[in-house]
Amino acid sequence: MTDSMYLTARRxxxxxxxxxxxxxxxxxxxxxxxxxxxxxxxxILAEGPHNLSELAEEHAVSLPxxxxxxxxxxxxxxxxxxxxLHDRRVVQVExxxxxxxxxxxxxxxxxxxxxxxxxxxxxAECERxxxxxxxxxxxxxxxxxxxxxPG
Length: 151
Fold this sequence. Notes:
Layout: H1 3-31, H2 36-46, E1 50-51, H3 52-59, H4 63-75, E2 79-83, E3 91-95, H5 97-118, H6 123-140
Antiparallel strand pairs: 1-3, 2-3
């Protein structure tokens, strides 16, 4: 590993939490989310129904923790919970139209806030940031099976 790789890793560790704080703040303000993880749940559920086990694994939390999070979203009318037809022990969670609307509103508000934050950059600097983010996406898009941490 080169010195620039270590410096890059350090910069990511410094910058990503700052960006995540901005995202979390906007998500809480825009969607009345108690925790940013609820926003991520809505994003995952927008792809289609998932069972509790899949959601818990994706978030690296226990089933009771995930069940509690889903209960919060259920109370807001953003998701529904139902038993799978093939196995009554499996609980399926699905995004409701109200949940999709809330997710879209949060996404728009977050995008607008980030756009305002990025307004200090020139168009050329934005292009450089975008190129760097695409490189990072390539590095982190797929976690090889040997990097999974046993839960």
